[in-house]
Each structure stands twice: as C-alpha cells, then as structure tokens.
C-alpha cells in the first residue's frame, strides 16, 4: 500500500473497532497547512453523527487505540474531531534512501489485463487536432498502467470499411498507377477531398462507389488490393505522427472495424437469443430501460439496418465480446470524445444485458472535451479548415526554436534545434494533459511555451537545472555513495512530496486523469525550488552535501519518470 492507503486502512479499521460499525472511512486528505500536519483524517465527525457520539470524544478514543508504527511521528486531535497526522522524518529518510536506486513505484500486486482503445484516427484523412487529445491522453494512461505492471493491450480501432472506401477505390481506379498514384496518396487530405467532390457531384461516380462497397465486402480481389494499399498508406501517415509525438502505438496495435466483420452475425444471434431484439421500421434495435429521446420516446440502439447492413454499435458490441471473452480483459478503457457518451452508455448496457461482457469486466468510457481557439470555438485555421496535426507540431517546434534562440543565442544551432524539438512537442502535449480531460480548453501558444507556471518548459527546465548541479558538483548518482538525512524543514517537505509520487501514479491508474500527475510534478518542482533556496547544495560540505545531492537525485528521477509517463522526453541542459 502507498502511504495514503496505509493511513486510510489503519484508521478506518480503528473506527470500525471502536464504533462496532462495519463500514467506516477515515477520509484521509492532504493537510492544507504544514503546521496542521502532513495528512488529515476527516472521518471521525461523519461517524460520530451516524452513531450519535460526541466527535471529540470519539476522536480521542481513536487516538488512544491507534498504533501506526514507525510511519507516524505525531498525531493531534484538532477542531471538532479532525486528526492531524505528522509523518516521522526518520521514516521519510528510509524511504528516500530506498528511492535513490530502487523502483520509485512498486508493481501492482494483482495486475489486471487491460485493453485500452485510443487514438482511432480516420484512415481516409490525415490526423488533425481533433485526434490530439484522445491520442496523448490515451497514451499517458497506457504508459502508466504498463509502468505499474498491468498486462496492457493497446488497440487502435479505426474505420476501414464502408461507403467512404468504395468512394476512394472508385477514385483510385480512374487514376494512373505507380508513382503518380503514390504521389497523390502522399497528401491524404487532398486525395479524400477530390474523391468526395466527385462522389457528391457525379451520380454515376457515386453509384459505382456503392457497387465497389459491395464488391469489397464480397472480397473482390481488385478492390481488396486497392483497399489494402490505401490502408497501408494511411497507417504509414499515422505512424509518422506517432513517432513525432512520442506515442507508443505501433502497427501491431491496429485492430480496425474489418477485424470484427466475421463476428457481427454472432452478435445479432446472441441478442436475439436473449430476447433483446425488436424490429422497428425494418431495422433491428435494442431498447434499453432508462434511455429516452428528447421527446420522451424509447431511445433505440440500432444494430442492423433494414437493408441488412451493420452499424458502429454492432462493431462495438463485437469488440466488447472479443476483448472480454477472448482477451480475458479485466478492464476495457475507451478514450473517445464526450460526444460519444450516449453511444457508449447504450453499448455497455446492451453488452451487460446480453452477456457479451462479463459482470467482472469493467467497461469505462474515458471521455474528453474539445480543444478550443481563443474565440471559444473548435480550434481551426483562419480560413476555417481543420488544422493538420503535423502542422501543429511543426509550428510548435518553430516557435520553441525562436524562444530558445532569444534566450540563448550563443548556443550552437544544432543544440538549439534539439532543444526546440523536445520543448515544442512537450509543450503541445503538456498543455493538453495538464487540463482535466473532461473539460474543453483554450489553446494558447503563449501560455503553453511559457517558462513560468504549470507548463512543459518549466518542468523541463527544473529537471535540466538539477542535472546541471550534478555536473558542477562532479556528482554521479550511480557511483557516489551517500546517505540521505533530513534535518531542515525544507528537506522534510521535499521528501514527503517525493514519497507522494506513488499515490499520484496509482490514483492516475485508477481514475485515468493525467492532469493529476501534471499538477503533482508542478508542485514537486515548486517544493524543490524552496528546498534549493533554503538548503545550499553546492556550498554544503561533507555528508550534508552528499545528502542534499542525494535528495536532488531522487527529485530528478521522479521528474524524469513522471514526464516519461506523460510521454514527454527530458533534456540534460536547456
């Protein structure tokens, strides 16, 4: 257990013992003021009210019974029944020395099999800013779960089937092959736009496109070759962007809609066998209790159209069944924007009701809001076009290069470009990750590239500054023998903050909110700066100097690991 869990479990057990109740919660929180301790237990008052006891008397009884061993140095009863908890500095010393060279966060004792579905670009177009949030939020969650030792299965689920591919195949059929075709495919956005214009303007073209959909679904060899060629080019585009953004998805993680084609009939059969299908206007629907239209009518989940075609819901039900039954997933996470919330609520409910998903498997829609421009509308170019993600990355790197050049013009251009590349990509990612994923947010170049506040440049600089201290001190953390001791209040505060990294990472794995980790790293950098200002490192001598360098080392390790979980690379100097 991490420290917060230990306190919660231990104090809750004493509350149960004293009260005779079976469900008591200590309600541990961080103390807002250091003079009132490091943690605070707030559960005494709620329990006292429930069982009709005086909260101060109950709190005193808890303190008399409580034994937290070497972890806690002091307990205080405050106010109407708060318990202030002061962590023992000697316990923190032991933890800091363990953290110097050992794993910062223990592996999960009972690892889960987790399928995480994220990114999901549209293969017919180039990735744009609308794909950014799902990609980087999903990747941060995936990295964290993987770090904790869970069996992680990444799925990049995207559409590679349907009418739009009939349209694209038809357009490809009319173009010269070879190099010319490859040149046109190099700009997927233009290629798709040209095909769509033909589809909308020419009835004969549109009819041929529909016929090609039927041929594709019947495995026509010529259509399959063109389809596979287009898919290959599209995936290559995606992988180039993933590499640019330091995203862990690979081609092996691609599990598209077509993968589930052979499983769709089985979904219909299962729903029918459970008596869940209702015919409505020729379509097969599942009507679920609690889902109503705006007019108060039952909201259908359509799984098969009147013409026999299947829908997104059918594919998603097949995906749930595959992930739950064949992959044996304990958790299935869907990092998809908030506009799909109703869809996933219905799919999850139908999967549960039909038995396609076991009751033991957690189905979680991790929704996210929209990236907005300063005008409060979805972020677009001045002409109103959707911004390509690659263009956003390149502009961020260019702006970072100008910023680095203005701050350090004497640095060789090669070094400035290297720093700009890391800072530019980190700024784009961190500006998103530091916001609650459930909220819309305003995209602002100036704030995201600032060296002040909760930004990537600030954290990268904090890490690089510690590395520069090591160079000045000729200190090698891997070979220098040192023992961390904690005497000054700023040393104790830093050690406590470092110990809370475990709590933050484990909470992120559970709640899937990367902004919690961003806030922790920002606060850690601030606590470190206070330590550095009040506790001289390079001017200290002997064991004290080595101890403080050791604390710097644990801080650097924690910043590096935290940023790595967010998919952000670090720099040795800036």
Looking at this protein, list some descriptive labels.
574 residues; globular; four-stranded antiparallel β-sheet; 21 helices; Gyrase A, domain 2; 13 strands; alpha/beta
Can you offer a commentary on this structure?
- It is a single chain.
- The protein is an alpha/beta fold and 574 residues long.
- Among the domains are: 3-87, Arginyl tRNA synthetase N-terminal domain (Gyrase A, domain 2), CATH 3.30.1360.70; 163-249, no CATH class.
- It has helices spanning 3-19, 43-51, 55-65, 89-99, 132-147, 163-173, 178-185, 188-201, 203-217, 221-245, 264-273, 312-326, 341-354, 389-407, 413-433, 445-448, 456-473, 489-499, 501-511, 514-534, 542-565, and strands at residues 28-30, 39-41, 72-78, 82-87, 113-117, 151-155, 277-280, 283-292, 298-304, 331-334, 362-365, 371-372, 441-442.
- Strand 10 (331-334), helix 13 and strand 11 form a beta-alpha-beta unit.
């Amino acid at each position: 257990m991490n420290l917060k869990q230990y306190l919660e479990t231990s104090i809750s057990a004493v509350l149960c013992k004293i009260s005779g109740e079976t469900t008591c919660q200590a309600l541990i929180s961080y103390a807002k003021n250091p003079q009132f301790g490091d943690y605070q237990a707030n559960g005494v008052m709620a329990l006292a009210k429930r069982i009709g006891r005086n909260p101060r008397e109950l709190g005193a009884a808890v303190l008399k019974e409580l034994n937290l061993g070497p972890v806690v140095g002091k307990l205080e009863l405050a106010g109407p029944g708060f318990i202030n908890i002061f962590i023992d500095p000697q316990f923190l010393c032991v933890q800091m020395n363990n953290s110097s060279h050992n794993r910062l966060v223990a592996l999960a004792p009972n690892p889960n099999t987790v399928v995480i579905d994220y990114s999901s670009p549209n293969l017919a177009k180039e990735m744009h800013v609308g794909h950014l949030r799902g990609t980087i939020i999903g990747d941060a969650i995936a990295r964290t779960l993987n770090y904790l030792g869970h069996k992680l299965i990444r799925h990049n689920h995207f559409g590679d089937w349907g009418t739009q591919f009939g349209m694209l195949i038809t357009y490809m059929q009319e173009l010269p092959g070879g190099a010319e075709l490859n040149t046109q495919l190099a700009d997927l956005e233009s290629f798709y736009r040209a095909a769509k214009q033909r589809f909308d303007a020419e009835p004969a073209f549109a009819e041929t496109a529909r016929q090609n959909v039927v041929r594709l679904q019947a495995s026509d060899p010529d259509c399959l070759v063109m389809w596979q060629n287009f898919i290959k080019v599209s995936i290559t585009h995606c992988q180039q962007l993933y590499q640019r953004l330091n995203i862990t998805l690979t081609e092996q993680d691609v599990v598209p809609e077509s993968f589930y084609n052979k499983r769709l009939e089985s979904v219909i059969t299962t729903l029918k066998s459970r008596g869940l299908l209702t015919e409505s206007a020729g379509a097969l629907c599942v009507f679920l209790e609690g889902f109503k239209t705006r007019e108060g009518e039952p909201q259908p989940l359509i799984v098969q159209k009147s013409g026999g075609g299947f829908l997104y819901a059918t594919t998603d039900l097949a995906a749930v069944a595959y992930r739950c039954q064949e992959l044996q997933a304990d958790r299935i996470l869907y990092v998809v924007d908030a506009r799909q919330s109703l869809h996933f609520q219905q799919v999850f409910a139908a999967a549960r009701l039909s038995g396609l998903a076991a009751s033991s498997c957690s189905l979680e829609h991790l929704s996210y809001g929209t990236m907005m421009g300063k005008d409060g509308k979805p972020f677009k170019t001045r002409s109103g076009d959707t911004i390509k993600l690659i263009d956003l990355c390149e502009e961020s790197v260019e702006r970072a290069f100008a910023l680095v050049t203005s701050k350090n013009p004497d640095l060789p251009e090669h070094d400035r470009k290297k720093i700009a590349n890391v800072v530019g990509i980190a700024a784009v990612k961190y500006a998103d990750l530091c916001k609650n994923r459930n909220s819309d947010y305003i995209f602002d170049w100036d704030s995201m590239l600032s060296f002040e506040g909760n930004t990537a440049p600030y954290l990268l600089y904090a890490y690089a500054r510690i590395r520069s201290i090591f160079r000045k001190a000729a200190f090698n953390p891997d070979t220098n023998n040192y023992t961390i001791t904690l005497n000054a209040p700023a040393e104790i505060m830093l050690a406590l903050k470092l110990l809370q990294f475990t709590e933050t990472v484990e909470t992120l794995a559970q709640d899937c909110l990367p902004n919690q980790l961003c806030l922790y790293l920002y606060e850690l950098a601030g606590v470190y700066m206070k330590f550095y200002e009040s506790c001289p490192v390079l001017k200290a001598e002997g064991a004290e100097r080595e101890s403080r360098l050791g604390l710097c080392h644990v801080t650097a390790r924690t910043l590096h690991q935290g940023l790595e979980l967010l998919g952000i690379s670090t720099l040795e100097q800036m």
